[in-house]
Amino acid sequence: MAQLRIALAQTNPVVGDLTANAERLLAWTRDAAERGAHLVVFTEMFLTGYPVEDLVLRTSFVDASIETLDEVARTLEREGLGELPVVVGYVDRAGLAPRVGQPKGASLDAAALLHRGEVVIRTAKHHLPNYGVFDEYRYFVRGDRLPVFRLHGVDVAIAVCEDLWQDGGPVAVVGQAGAGLLVVPNASPYEKEKDDVRLELCARRAREAGCALVYVNQVGGQDELVFDGDSIVVDGAGELVARAGQFTEELLVVDLDLPVSDAPIGAFPHDAGDGTTITVDRVVLSSEPVAPYEPAPGRIAERLDLHAEVYSALVLAVRDYVAKNGFRSVILGLSGGIDSALTATIASDAIGPSRVNVVLMPSRYSSEHSLADAEELVRRQGVNSQVVPIAEIVNAFEKEIDLSGLAAENLQARVRGMILMGLSNEHGHLVLTTGNKSELATGYSTLYGDSAGGFAPIKDVPKTMVWELSRWRNAHSEPQFLMSAERPIPENSISKEPSAELRPDQRDTDSLPPYEVLDRLLDDYVEKDMGSQELIAAGHDPALVTRVIRLVDLAEYKRRQYPPGPKITPKNFGRDRRLPITNRWRETTG
Question: Which InterPro entries match (predicted)?
Fold first, then answer.
């Protein structure tokens, strides 16, 4: 057996910022070298950031990716780090002749091995995910190789993200190739409770291949996606050896005892078990094992519970959206209700209360307790606040245009949206919308009113979970949160009956069923794609099924115009769920 010290670079790249990502690679590699690592593994498409979407269709972007990779290899050598092998993801091209049905440029979701100033290995993802948030058939062609490099006597194989999740392909031939270690760069987006699925997957693949496995995952927010890290190392029996934290950057260093290989060098084709042939390419970096040393114990970070991980995901998403898009501050309407209270709290934890601005906009229908609850939150959190009464502004509109009923109610929301957008325009604030998933699902929001803004922190959070997260945050904190206030959300905002307060004595239950009933039905219809008959068979009231399906289906045009927000469920409104706006299909209950 031979020893290897592996450094897992659980990092937060910025899409399109190749220069900064390359500088980050250099800094993290230097850190790994100082900690005695023999190999550093970065994440999928680290140099370009992930996902790059249609940027990959531009020749200039792919050229820059390839040039940056070559320059990084040379820079590592100049900086005295060339002897430390680095595995890193980037975008490459296959060099295929253009043909119909092939993405422009035939780009590759690629990974490379850098050593001694050279790009020693170039490989590419074989399985291209085309489900959920992924559109990789649109962007890439698949790879057909499994590179294996010998490092201090140990044969190390490289596969990329989805190749671990699917049967067949490169991972299926790792065992046939006799590799002692499989390293997998990933950009695997967060969904609640996904960490248990990942660990089981890594353990199963390690057992199938008969070798240790290193799973390195990206961390950070990118538009609607959040990457949670949670990098994992398991041994050949699938036992957990080390695990990085969630929602935080980390260089996880782990020592492994691995078998020494004497397999022949060269290229060898193998049946991949998915109807394709994978060629195993072997190269040698070094054959002699390192001198024995005292290994450091593997660190296994404590797992977050459900509410802690969801809340941490939302905080990270807001923090990165603000920072990566160059905003200095955020602004939102604060009503005294639970949705705006939770949104303000997430923002304060993400960027600090001093950069959060709230506007209290009471109308003729606002209750005294709502204004008091909003003022209490301002006092507890220390956010910047101002009061802009809207009654006279609404009156001015009503003098010029005759509105009644719902149109008159929505005017109030649109006045509030106009005020927020005006202040955003004046001061450069990012407007945060405060709608939750239950409201978005049923269309219980005002287009160009409370839907006006640039980012929607709780867009994918059902109403019942809004309450759960608020109670959790009042009882807990995390070191990465930037607000020190204890119990930052007033209890009355959590306990009172929800109301839009757009007419006298209004309650959400005037228009919607109780949220605990509604959210169960929405979960089955939206998340699980059940039809009406399936919903009734699952125990939902037939009349309510008909009513809620109608609300959800008619609100599609509203959701299409809603700002982006972080995905925390298996099917968010956005990249996950794509339905036609013009659509006459209707579910029937009988």
Answer: C-N_Hydrolase, C-N_Hydrolase_sf, Gln-dep_NAD_synthase, NAD/GMP_synthase, NAD_synthase, Nitrilase/CN_hydratase_CS, Rossmann-like_a/b/a_fold
